[in-house]
Amino acid sequence: MRRRREEPGWLRGTPPPRWARLAPAVALVVLVCVQRITPGDVELGYFLAGLPPVAAFAYGAAGTAFFAGVVLVLVGVPSLGIAHAQGSDLATVAVIGLLSVVVAWVRKRRDAQLVSVRTVAEAAQLAVLPPIPERVGAVACAGLYRAAQQGTLVGGDLYDVRVGPFGVRALVGDVQGHGLAAVGTVASLLGAFREGVLDDAELTMVAARLDRRLLADSAAESEEHAELFATAVLLEFPPGLGLVRIVSCGHPPPLLLRGFTVSELDVEPGPPLGLGLAGPTPAAPAELPVGPGDRLVMYTDGVTEARDAAGHFYPLTARVPVLATDPAGLARAVWRDLQSFTGGGPRDDVALLVLSLDEGPDGDGGDGGLA
Questions:
Q1: How far are the Cα atoms of 132, 224, 308, 317, 361 from residue 265, in angstroms, in the given order?
Q2: Which of 9, 61, 67, 163 is 20 to 30 A off residue 267, Cα-Cα?
Q3: Rounded Cα distance, 299 and 255, in Å
Q4: Residue whose C-alpha is closest to residue 157's, from 121, 127, 136, 187
Q5: d(CA 325, CA 319)
């Protein structure tokens, strides 16, 4: 599953692009050649003093020192005919070169620190919300995930699919808040869900566990952050029964894609998690028979509340049948369609999960999470 944002390579620790490394050398050659064909009373050689600072953005201290040395020789040796720097002018060029070397050294160290911090941060976020595998038990899975906050992999949405003694269970939720501020709540809910998959015989008991988890976290929070809540929808595929059970906690119900017909499932909505309104026994789950070829689409409001330039909401229900035949898979097709519809992508966290009991629920079944 791929959730890494597309960023310039040097922000991920890879070497700068080739053009950035070639630019100082090309500029050096061009300036020298132009000076050669320029009348002697016009000096362009002093522009060479700007090359070491440029080189500092693409080279380390040694490479920048090399450019600074070449420039110092070109402007300081009159017989070369490039410039005739003397005294304070030559000292100025030398100081610029020295400062460029220092800048290159500091930049290199900061880049190394940035790569280390990003690596640790990504590992921590992926530990909270690991990639969804292509298959979990008898259920094939494909999904997309995009955090709204730039540079993060996890936001305020969550999803997970786990297999346990009571079948395959799935969760899609949307917690209060966005970005890194919501990651703690996301981690709490996912931890409670994974325990419930193993321990709770009924899907309603899993929902009650999630509700208690948020209530406990709210009680432990400071006064100004005393309210934590989330909406969620839980699915359960009991082994060998050919049906799915669904519990909604204030969350939009899943879509059922059967052939080229899509319908919103009739699920009795319960209250959101964390408000203490569900009580010890949440509403009974809805049951729906599922067969080969049926696909269940679970999503957060980051998908359906995405707007185009005219302010219209994204019509997920209408678009799913059209995108279902995309060879890249339904989840990836929805993401591309969302980007086109909104002109670059939604500004909210986005999660979408496609589940099916058959062998190929979503084209290649490996959309993974996109970011």
A1: 24, 38, 26, 11, 18
A2: 163
A3: 9
A4: 187
A5: 11
DSSP 79: G
State how beta strands 243-249 and 269-270 pair.
parallel
Nearest to 153 by CA among 164, 142, 144: 144
Cβ atoms of 274 and 228 closer than 8 Å: yes
Q: Which helix (H) or strand (E) holds 245?
A: strand 243-249
Stated pTM of the model: 0.70
Work out the mean pLDDT of the chain and round it to a whole number: 80
**SS3 assignment, position 1:** coil
Which residues sit opposite 248 in a β-bridge?
233, 269
The token pair that represents 167 in the structure block: 């079948």
- Complete DSSP assignment for 325-370: T-TT-HHHHHHHHHHHHHTS--SS-EEEEEEESSS-TTTTS-----
Q: Average the pLDDT over 344-371 and give the result.
A: 65
